[in-house]
Structures
1.
Amino acid sequence: MQIKILDKVYECENQIDAVGTIFDQIQQLLTQSNTSLSSFEIDGVELYSEYDQYIIDHIDSIKIIVINVKTLKELMDDTLNSIQEYTIKAIPAIDKMVNEFYQGVSQDTWDKFSQLLEGLQFIIDSLNTIGDNQDWYYNASQFEVVKQKLLRQIVMLQIAMESQDRVKLSDVLIYEIIPSFKALAKEITVNTEYGQVQ
C-alpha cells in the first residue's frame, strides 16, 4: 500500500506492524512540520475519526491512504468558526434554560447546564490558544477580553450553584454569558470579514 502525507509517499506491506512503523515516522513528520492530522482518505473513503479501526478492518485490501493535515492556525480558524456557530445556537438554548430555572428545574435542565459548562471550557481553551499565538489574529486582545469575562462569569456560576441560587444562576446566564457569547461571535465575524478566518 501507499501512504501519502504532505509531499512524501511511503510504501509498505499490508500488515499492521508495517503500517505502525510508517505511522511512527509520520508522527515525527507532523511534529517537524508543525501540523496536525485533519482527516484520512483511505481508498476514496474520507474519515475524520476512528481511522485506526478502519485500517485494521480493511488492512488486506487498502491500496492508498492519503493523510490530510492542517496547520495549528488552520485548525484554530476551523475551531473559531465552530465556536461562532455554537454561540449563536446556544443563546436561544440559554434563554430556554433560564425559563426552566425560574419555572422548575428538571434533570434535563441540569444536563443542558452541564453541557453549557463543557462548551464554556472548550471556548476558554480555544481562546488560550489564541492568546499563545496572538500574531494570528489582529484582534487577539479582544478575544482575551472576552476570555477574562467568561472566566469571571464561570466563577459567578459556581458561586450561584454552591449556594443553590437559581435566580443568581439565571441572572449570570442572561445578563453575563449571553452578552459575552454575542461579543465573541462579533469578534469572530470581524476576523471573517477581514479575511483572517478562512
Note: The chain has two domains: 2-62, 74-193.
2.
Amino acid sequence: MEVVGRLTADAVIRKVAEDKKVVGFSLAVNDSFRSNGERREVTTFFECSYWRNEGIAEFLTKGSLVQIYGRVGVNAYLSRDGEARASLTFHVSEIKLFGSGSANDSQKVAEVKTQAEAEPKSEVKEPQERENVPMEQAVASGSTLKPSTAFDSVPSVEDDLPF
C-alpha cells in the first residue's frame, strides 16, 4: 500500500530485543469529500515503524511530507475508560522524503552529502576492454568488462511517430 502524509512529531528510534533498532513515527493523511453538497475533511493517523535504517530518523521531522510503502495493520484495544478502540499501524518497507520546505532540511542534506564526499574512496580499476569473450569465461576469470560497443557506430534513426 502507498500513503502520502505529514509527520505529526519527530521520529524516535527505539531499541528492541537483540540490539535491533526501529524508527517510529506518526503520519497524518488528510482527505476531503462532498456529502450532501457539504465539503467534509477527514484525517487518518498511522503509527509507522521502519526497521531498515535508523539513520533516516534525523530527516523525519514534524511537518515533513513523506510517501511510504508497506502494509497496514489494525490494533484493537480497550481504553482506560473501558471503550473499544483501534489504531492503524503501518509497517514501512520504503520511504520517500519530500521535506518540509524549510532551509534546515536542505542544510541537513548538504551535510550528509559533504560527509559522504569526505569519506575515503577505494580506488576503482578501469575495466579492460575485451572482444568476443563468452560471459561464462569472463565471470570465471573474475574480470570486469566494459559494456559492448558494438552498437556505438549505428546511426540514430529519426522516426515519424507523433509522440
Note: The first strand starts at residue 2 and ends at 7.
3.
Amino acid sequence: MVRICGIFFVALAVRAATAPDLEWVREIGGTGAQVTAVGSDGQGGLYIAGNAGAGFPATRTYGKASGTNAFVVRLDGSGTVVYAVKVGGSGTETPAGIAVAGDGSVVVGGTLGSLDFPATAGAYQTKETGAPYPGFSQTGNFLFRLAPDGTLAWASYFADGETAINAVGVGADGSPWTGARISEGHREATCR
C-alpha cells in the first residue's frame, strides 16, 4: 500500500492501493495550506501535519489561531476526515514532524513565530525563553500531543530561537523524541 501526500494550492492526500491504481484523493483547504509531515497508524489511518491561514476547515481550534498555524488532519483508511485540528497563536507555526503513538495519539513538533502559542498548564516550557539567533527566523519551537480523538492533551514551547526542531518521534512507551538543529554554543538546549 502506498500513501502519497502533496500540495497544490490546498493540501492534497492521495492513497493508492498499488501503483498506478488510485484509491482515493482528499483536498484539505485553507489559505496557503502546506503539508510538512505525514504519519500513519496500524489501522490504515493517515495523519497530515502542516500549516495554513484563514479558511482552514478545523473541527477544533486551540489558541488564537489567527496567524499561519499548525494543523493536524486525521483521515481513516477510506479517506474520511476523523478530525482537523488547528493549533497556534498570532504568528506562524510550522510542523517539522509528526509521530503516531501506539494508542493513536500524535505528537507534533516544529518551529514557531508566536509569543502567544497555547502552552498548557504544567507543560515542559510554558513561555518563550529567548529571541531569534542570527540565521534563525523563528522565535522558538513547539511540541504538542493530540489525544486519539483530536483533543489537545498538552502543548509546550521547547527551547528557543537558537534551536530548530526538524524531526519528531515517539518511543515504545509513547514518550516524545525530537531532533533539532542547534546553534553553535547553545547545545545545552536539548539536555534539560
Note: Residues 33-190 form one domain.
